[in-house]
Amino acid sequence: AQRVTQPEKLLSVFKGAPVELKCNYSYSGSPELFWYVQYSRQRLQLLLRHISRESIKGFTADLNKGETSFHLKKPFAQEEDSAMYYCALRSGGYNKLIFGAGTRLAVHP
Amino acid sequence: EAGVAQSPRYKIIEKRQSVAFWCNPISGHATLYWYQQILGQGPKLLIQFQNNGVVDDSQLPKDRFSAERLKGVDSTLKIQPAKLEDSAVYLCASRPVGREETQYFGPGTRLLVL
User: Fold this and answer.
1) Do strands A103-108 and A96-99 pair parallel, antiparallel, or not at all (unpaired)?
2) How many CB atoms lie under 10 A from the CB of residue B85?
3) Which of A4, A44, A95 sits opposite B105 (nearest CB)?
4) Is the pLDDT confidence value at B99 over 70?
5) Of A10, A39, A101, B13, which residue is least crowded by CB atoms under 10 Å?
6) Cα separation of A103 and A37, whole Å?
């Protein structure tokens, strides 16, 4: 079965601390993974995708096929990073997205 | 460019009543999605349109939910009759043609069924 698991509902850190939001997936084919973010009172939006191998707002994520993981990392958290983060898996030929339950990141001053 | 528009933003109804949501995708986007997001969960795809044709409605509860995109632009999602468990945020998203393109989400409609 195709599934995305985000084990943490809430991750609370202090400003300047490193952040790692965990994402594990289950998929039989070659996976395409994404991180979406929703800031307070804003729309859900794409943060980054694994095929781009880019850093957005200081965040990076590496696809580890052996561990079936796609963890999101940032070395120094900022207060403006506080948001809901969703890991998503693209499935099928019509680009359907399967989302995890999300992790709320709270960065405290 | 203007983003995906949805209305209404909020709706409160009683169980067994009917409700309809409207979505206007970004101009030129061929693919349109409706998601249901129950509190504490991630968005779950209900139905996906390519232009005015349905390409995936495998998770749409067809006994009570229906959706259409008659002219390949705007779309409506209807629930008839509503149940308590339909309380959720209903998100619309659109995407242009091209495998590398991303989905753009609307602000959502928050439905509360009493």
Assistant:
1) unpaired
2) 10
3) A44
4) no
5) A10
6) 10
The sheet carrying B5-7 orders its strands as B5-7, B19-24, B75-79, B65-68
Phi, psi (degrees; rounded to nearest 5) at A24 = -120, 150
Helix ranges (DSSP H) in A1-109: none
CA–CA distances in Å: residue B34 to residues A7, B48, B54, B92, B112 = 25, 7, 11, 5, 17
Q: Flag if A102 and B48 touch (Cβ within 8 Å).
A: no
Q: Which residues pair with A48 in a beta bridge?
A: A35
Of A43, A49, A88, the CB nearest to B106: A43
**Predicted local distance difference test score (pLDDT) of residue A31:** 87
Average pLDDT, chain B: 93
What is the pairing mode between strands B104-105 and B75-79? unpaired
A60 CB-near residues (< 8 Å, 6+ apart): A48, A72, A73, A74
Q: What is the pLDDT of residues A28-73, one digit of tens each?
A: 888 899 999 999 999 999 999 988 878 889 999 989 999 999 999 9
Side chain identity at residue B49, one-letter code: F
Q: Tell me how crowded residue A66 is: count the other CB atoms within 10 A of its CB.
A: 5
Question: Closest to A94 (Cβ–Cβ): which among B40, B55, B105?
Answer: B55
Q: What region, left, alpha or beta, does residue A93 occupy, with left being phi > 0 and alpha being psi -120 to 50 degrees?
A: alpha
Reduced to 3 states (helix: H, G, I; strand: E, B; else coil), residue B22 is strand
The stretch B78-103 carries a mean pLDDT of 91
Total H helices, total E strands in chain A: 0, 11
Q: Is A90 on the interface with B (CB under 8 A)?
A: no
Determine the residue of chain A that is closest to B102 in CA distance. Answer: A46
